[in-house]
């Protein structure tokens, strides 16, 4: 069987690089979000839906929690779950259970959770409405459901420009870049079709830390987020530096960029839907 082509400059995928790519921005939004939600009560059961490496779980554990709270953290990505399990081993007293589960096919019983948070899960789904329906189904009456999706991600525009510059305007965007955020209208449509009622919408922002070397971050991002439809081609290896030059230039010129202590950061904005069942 022929091994798929991969540019020599592309990095080998691992959890540490993924963490470097996404920084702590999910935790930052989760922390802000938790402060805006109704306080949890004793013995509350919380779902960290599409938990990734556990941004929501970590943010919860860093707040003052009532007694006997339980957290169910689920994801289908084994690498994310491995990262979260390692975190849980370092904190054995945390009341958290992590397991593999598809957000579009949750197996929890109806009326299980007092709070369900889906923090930047929906970009990776094929059936948004099914996932939103399962959130509603698994909430207790009066419980709160939350969906956070990215609205504005300036780095996305940089990668998209590099894609068109090095691959042409007619080639479809890589899968991740083609579905990386939701406008408010899309989020409204999804929750409405899923049966959510009296939905509130808000925006929150945070800064993604790109590091001291923009080119390194661009290399990680181009490797992990810009794999073309149908796989890498020799063209991508030949134009690798051209793509990175384009990304770095766009990031440097972004009005949303700032530098603190030599670290480049870029502002991102989330659309958030909340509703009580």
Automatic annotation (TrEMBL):
GO terms for biological process: methylation. InterPro entries: Methyltransf_25 (IPR041698), SAM-dependent_MTases_sf (IPR029063). CDD domains: AdoMet_MTases. Pfam families: Methyltransf_25. Residues 46-142 form the Methyltransferase domain. One of its GO terms (molecular function) is methyltransferase activity. Keywords: Methyltransferase, Transferase. This is S-adenosyl-L-methionine-dependent methyltransferase.
């Amino acid at each position: 069987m022929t091994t798929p082509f991969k540019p020599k400059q592309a990095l080998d995928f691992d959890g540490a690089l993924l963490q470097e790519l996404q920084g702590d921005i999910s935790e930052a939004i989760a922390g802000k979000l938790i402060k805006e939600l109704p306080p949890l009560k004793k013995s509350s059961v919380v779902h960290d839906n599409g938990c990734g490496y556990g941004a929501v779980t970590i943010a919860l554990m860093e707040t003052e929690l009532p007694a006997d709270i339980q957290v169910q953290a689920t994801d289908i990505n084994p690498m994310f779950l491995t990262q979260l399990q390692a975190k849980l081993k370092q904190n054995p007293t945390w009341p958290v259970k992590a397991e593999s589960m598809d957000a579009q096919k949750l197996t929890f019983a109806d009326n299980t959770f007092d709070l369900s948070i889906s923090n930047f899960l929906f970009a990776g789904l094929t059936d948004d409405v099914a996932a939103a329906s399962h959130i509603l189904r698994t909430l207790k009456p009066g419980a709160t459901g939350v969906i956070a999706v990215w609205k504005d991600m300036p780095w996305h525009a940089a990668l998209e420009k590099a894609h068109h510059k090095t691959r042409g305007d007619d080639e479809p965007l890589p899968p991740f870049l083609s579905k990386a955020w939701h406008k408010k209208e899309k989020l409204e449509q999804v929750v409405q079709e899923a049966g959510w009622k009296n939905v509130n919408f808000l925006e929150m922002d945070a800064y993604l830390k790109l590091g001291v070397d923009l080119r390194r971050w661009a290399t990680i991002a181009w490797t992990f987020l810009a794999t073309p439809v149908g796989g890498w081609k020799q063209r991508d290896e030949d134009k690798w530096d051209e793509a990175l030059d384009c990304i770095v230039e766009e990031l440097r010129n972004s009005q949303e960029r700032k530098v603190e202590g030599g670290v480049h950061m870029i502002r991102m904005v989330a659309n958030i839907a909340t509703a009580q069942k």
